[in-house]
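Hi R.,

Here's the chain you asked about this morning:
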Amino acid sequence: MKKQTVILILFIFSYLAVDAQESYIKNRWNIKASYASYPGQFISKHGIKNSFGNYRIETNYGLFNCLEIGGYLGYSRTSALYVITGGGLVYENMNTPFFGLNLNFHPLGFLIKKRDFRLDFYLLGRYGGSYYATPEGYNVPTKGFYSEIRHGAGLSFYLTKHIGIFGEYSFGILAKPSGNLRFGVSVKF
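And here is the predicted structure, written out as tokens:
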């Protein structure tokens, strides 16, 4: 009985995903520019901060009425630390690139039949990482690639037919588990 139920659910979902209705997602490009704050040490002339900014450009394409896939590139300015025996601290700020893949599921795509719908709710998945080019001799963070996996939800509102604003809350793991709020501008065409 369970096997038949699972097959029936998969069949229904597949049918709905490829249904040829008018959609505000299918065959649409969506480009986003955004900002979020990540936990981690950043040292500036104003002192030590427990977070650093992350700027990101993201591009998505609507495959079905409810599903977008895409990729992102991001940038952060982080600090590499070297702790001196006796309590001293030496730091060097470094450029840190972020990159990865996106997957956005839009449940409203099953309900809304309009092509120009202005409000959008979506569930998101981000799979990627960052590369810390920690200078020789510094030990925090360790030099290398850090994978990032994030899951959450987002809400977009399009002020015009093509330009909108959005906010996303996601929880994930980069160097340590954290939640963050990302907000920005979206352009669809």
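One quick note: The CA atoms of residues 37 and 124 lie 18 Å apart.

Cheers,
M.
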